[in-house]
Amino acid sequence: MSSTSREWIRQPIIVVMGHVDHGKTTLLDKIRGTAVARKEPGEITQHVGASIVPASVLKKIAEPLKKYFPKLQIEIPGLLFIDTPGHELFANLRKRGGSVADMAILVVDVMEGFQPQTVEAINILKEKRVPFVVAANKIDRIEGWRPTPDAPFLETIRNQSQRALNLLEEKIYRIAGELYNHGFEAERFDRVRDFRRTVAIIPISAKTGEGVSELLALITGLVQQFMKKKLVTSSEPAKGVVLEVKEEPGLGTTIDVIIYDGVLRKNDLFIIAGKSKPVVTRVRALLMPRPLQDMRMHEGRFTQVEEVYAATGVKVSAPDLDDALAGSPLYVIPDETKLQDYLRMVSEEVSELRFKVESD
Ligand code: GDP
């Protein structure tokens, strides 16, 4: 590597999981809305397949929480949220020995409690050893709830009747019980003494925004306290995963990639898994959504960049991507003499993945 090699702390990669209709999409929209509305001019918040809540926004959000979390300093450059919630996308975030996701938010509807896909999500998170917090969503549906839009939870509870508070308490208690049945100690976040042993439950409403600031502040705090080492990356050849394979008008087949380590540049030689054999090709273009566009609507909405840094979501255009496999690892090959090593490594890593695809 060149002498200009440098290190930085990257954004932790966060996924949102939970049962259908419990509010995953609404929560992601709320978080994205917050990030867009509160960002500084020029800050990029929309990536391909992911959104970033930048540090400046985390600082603004954490401001009203100072009295509750006096020691919270923002040291990470932001949080990267995978835009599409759910289990299928999570499966595509695999990497050797675990998941590219650093942390998960498990959304549980407070009125409904645990449902089959909640249990499924817990089992996946356990298996992949991804730490998580529980967002107990839809607190605004508790009988008699008096919402204060976007207020911290610890503020909004001061406006509630004793009856509403008791009802909430019951629901949280029930969720904690469910978690206990799956092997986790859990408590409302403001009562947790040791976050390494106890799963934090944050009561929120994705609809009114109540509690969402604490959810983001808590994730930030947890990541900074327990994961900072894991988030150190450097200007090394990129490592990533293929989140989705997509046809784009005028571009042919492209791959949406989450880069979790290093730097990806135009013209870089890289390897990914293909449906029949590994694909080795070069980056033709790196594409990011144009600012202020909804990234779920594509055509002509991308802008080219020369390089991207972890952590990021980016669309990669390159020759020979027709066979690309979603969920495949992506490695930049710094030195063509090492090609055989990379071929072996990718083949090994995906043999299990391909087996799964073929048996579907
Ligand atoms: P997903 O399937 O988990 O992505 O759930 P959605 O985000 O699509 O939400 C399912 C339904 O619940 C939608 O009608 C949302 O408007 C509603 N919803 C989500 N969050 C809240 C909330 O905090 N309060 C209320 N009252 N409704 C919510």
Give a concise summary:
With 360 residues, the protein is of the alpha+beta class.
Largest sheet: 8 strands, antiparallel
The string of secondary-structure elements, in order, is EEHEHEHEEEHEHHEEHEEEEEEEEEEEH
Strand content: 25-35%
Distance between the termini: 42 Å
Number of helices: 8
How many extended strands?
21
What shape does the CA trace take? globular
Class from secondary-structure proportions: alpha+beta
Rounded mean pLDDT is 91
pLDDT < 50 stretches: none
Helix content: 25-40%
Bound molecules: guanosine-5'-diphosphate
Radius of gyration: 21 Å
- Assembly type of the shown chains? single chain
Strand order of the largest sheet: 16-15-21-12-13-20-17-18
